[in-house]
């Protein structure tokens, strides 16, 4: 956490920011786990100081309340009253001495982000400290110690590392976070979103080192049960972006590699990565601010509509994202590359309009100006569902050549509601 950000957090805690600056800090706290952690530690530190100084403040207030200017000509003796200026000078000196001592003997924790922290947990999670023999419950937002082992059951987890990397753990996963750039997978699956660094990020599994070269990839480990996997330990590596190295073999984006009993095979092209790793979709939706990653997945699944016998599976998977897929879909419809595929363009519009919530009314109004009549019709039907009105324009109107008046009517309606 840089000094400028810490200054802003301190000022926000003091109530010293104007409304706009305070709003900016609130947005920062909503989207940045490291900033939230620093703010929580600053708040705890402030509360601790308040508690520490409470007796001194109470004593000062008590003495001050007994002091009254004398109306007589008799000057109070030095022993009968402590001069107020001296009292507060002593109190100030005590406070400064306390703070100086705290800064000398304890480095401020607010400047140091935790090694790792659970940011999202969809179900109870357990952790075992390094050297411990038993697991204990670990709550969401709880810090994680270096060398701890995490164990999921039915739920999924997102863990933020201090270097900016994120680990997503699937259900029934056991993972040890050995260091910021090294972890060991015992079972289950982990999808790593690796932050750039001069230090290689490594996931160890069954004697294999999967070294990330700045990438987003999944490592999954299980006991084989059929075919050539029967009785063997199976490790699957899938690369969503960037590239990884498994031993001496490099695996690029869109490719996967399978290892049996720690012996890696050859990379193979994967055509359905978004489905193979669909367990992470719920976490992406809950994380909320990782729009680029979610957009890429929606676009990948959208590309399969109409081009495979399993198209209904991809549509179902897109719809399972709820209104979180609306923006990626509408962005595709409005992009130049969508003009080359009318079917996929209409499917994207149809799904987006079906799933749009009231927050996406402006996006639906934008689609009323689309050059494709079928896109305009589904957008108008979505607006009817969301607002209860057609503004006097039916499907036949939106299939017509001149829709400027209807679009202007909806724009005016939207502006009137802010």
Q: What layout of secondary structure does this protein have?
A:
Layout: H1 3-14, H2 19-31, H3 33-66, H4 84-105, E1 116-121, E2 125-128, E3 136-138, E4 143-144, E5 149-152, E6 157-161, E7 166-169, E8 174-179, E9 182-193, E10 201-205, E11 208-212, E12 216-223, E13 233-241, E14 243-246, E15 249-252, E16 255-260, E17 263-264, E18 268-269, H5 273-276, H6 281-287, H7 291-302, H8 311-319, H9 326-333, H10 342-355, H11 361-367, H12 373-387, H13 395-398, H14 404-416
Parallel strand pairs: 9-10
Antiparallel strand pairs: 1-4, 1-6, 2-3, 2-5, 5-8, 6-7, 7-9, 8-9, 9-12, 10-11, 11-14, 12-13, 13-16, 14-15, 16-17, 16-18
- CATH-derived architecture of the largest domain: Sandwich
For the residues shown, what is the average pLDDT?
81
Radius of gyration: 30 Å
Tell me, briefly, the overall form: globular
Distance between the termini: 37 Å
**CATH structural fold name of the largest domain:** Jelly Rolls
